[in-house]
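Milestone M4 deliverable, item 7.
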Amino acid sequence: MKQYEKCKRIFLISISLLLSAILYNLLLLPLNLVTGGAVGIATITYYLYDFNPALMIFLISAACSLISYMYLGKEKTAGTIIACVVYPLLVEITSILTKNIKIEPKDILLLVLFAGVLSGIANGLMYKSGYTRGGLPVLSQVLYEKLKISIAKSSMLINMTVVLVGAFFFGTTNALYAIIFLYINNIVMDKVLLGISNNKAFYIVTEKEEEVKEYIINNLNHTITIFNVTGGFSEKKGKVILTVIPSREYYYMTEGIKQIDKNAFFVVTDAYQVEGAK
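Output delivered:
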């Protein structure tokens, strides 16, 4: 069973990276669409210096993996190594498609919407695999570990900086298209990864209650409710932390809990309607 799960994860990450590489070469690069991350920087350097995008993505990913190894350790870096090597390789291999398949940018908005959907599917599959693409998101994890800066905030800041640099070279219209792309990508990714609900309710039981509370309140900026419970079999008394978060923050929540208390017990359910709280 474990071997089956491992093969399934490798299959999902492989499909995700291949789809992302094809998408980059056929749509994002020809449209000069800077959507943040290593691929956004690769698009800019290709436009300015005709620098090989695959090589640039590899250099950035390798540098970020090295930083991850230095500050986060071997275990947390291992999941990024596959994508660090395989994704740039697939970008290079699939670049031949641009010579044989020409997509005319007559309706750029339609192409951007289509690209956003495909990217959302690819990213959803990637997160389902349990691996990560590495690259610039690693910096957000380091900033959280060392400076306790919210992963969501730092990730948004880094990506928006790349998008704004792209706007300087390609114009504000391209930047607006990039924002539309990112919005569609996030919506589709949520559907692939988590289903159709917009919010998730977390019920958390942990021995590190104060640290989990601080992470939810100060880093994710969400309120919590705590109530007393009694074990049905052991009759042991304890407390449960309840919080409701947007589905897009599901990954940050689960990873944050695991980093604070790897033995924490938590249940996640769909929350289709949330009222009366900020």
